[in-house]
Design a protein that fits this description.
5-stranded mixed sheet; 6-stranded mixed sheet; mainly beta; 208 residues
């Protein structure tokens, strides 16, 4: 049987097209193949404070970002009262909104599910060692909203994120007092907490 140059070219071309459809090794390395876990995620980490192109930055959300109040992947500082930072010769005026309810993200790492995932968590007072931040007490300094009051966060079916809603009680704070609450994931029956991101800390204050 004779094979023409045209046939050889088509065979080679089809091989190139097929190989180009295969996943790149680098892409395969990004696919999570570990056990399904739940973890906290600081969804506001990396946001700017405010600017002409980001009017709804951290200031608008009542999340403090000045020196000593920076965020981490497992913590943030929120203001329970709105206030203004006057303009200076080197910085424009900043309006800090009140963050009456903080939203803490809990994410499912692994395949999404066709049913809801109920994740248990606990809260605890979290003072710092220096004594500049005292431990926040549930029912006095803050409350958990809605379905979170029973210490359960629900990740809906076909989703990877659930929310813990924490409402600060501004009336229990005075001056520049800071109080901090810690949250720790206990997991679900079939999704253990990621030990690297199983705790999150929210520090509350009235003003910087």
């Amino acid at each position: 049987m004779k094979i023409s140059f045209k046939h050889i070219f088509l065979l080679l071309a089809s091989g190139v097209v097929f190989s180009s459809c295969l996943p790149d090794p680098a892409e395969k390395a990004l696919v999570y193949n570990g056990p399904t876990v739940v973890e906290f995620k600081n969804h506001t980490l990396g946001m700017v404070a405010s600017s002409a192109t980001a009017a709804h930055g951290l200031d608008f959300r009542g999340i403090l970002s000045n020196t000593g109040n920076g965020q981490t992947d497992s913590s943030r500082v929120i203001s329970l009262m709105g206030y203004t930072i006057p303009a200076t010769s080197t910085a424009p005026r900043r309006d800090i909104s009140a963050r009456t309810v903080d939203t803490v993200y809990v994410q499912l790492v692994g395949p999404q599910r066709s049913t809801t995932t109920e994740v248990k968590f606990e809260v605890f007072p979290a003072p710092n060692a220096a004594g500049t931040i005292t431990g926040a007490v549930e029912g006095t300094d803050y409350t958990l909203e809605g379905g979170n009051s029973n210490k359960v966060v629900t990740i809906p079916a076909n989703s990877s994120v659930g929310y813990i809603y924490l409402r600060g009680n501004a009336a229990s704070f005075t001056g520049r007092e800071k109080k901090r609450v810690g949250l720790r994931l206990l997991g679900a029956p079939d999704a253990s907490p990621n030990p690297n991101y199983d705790a999150f800390y929210v520090t509350m204050t009235l003003t910087n």
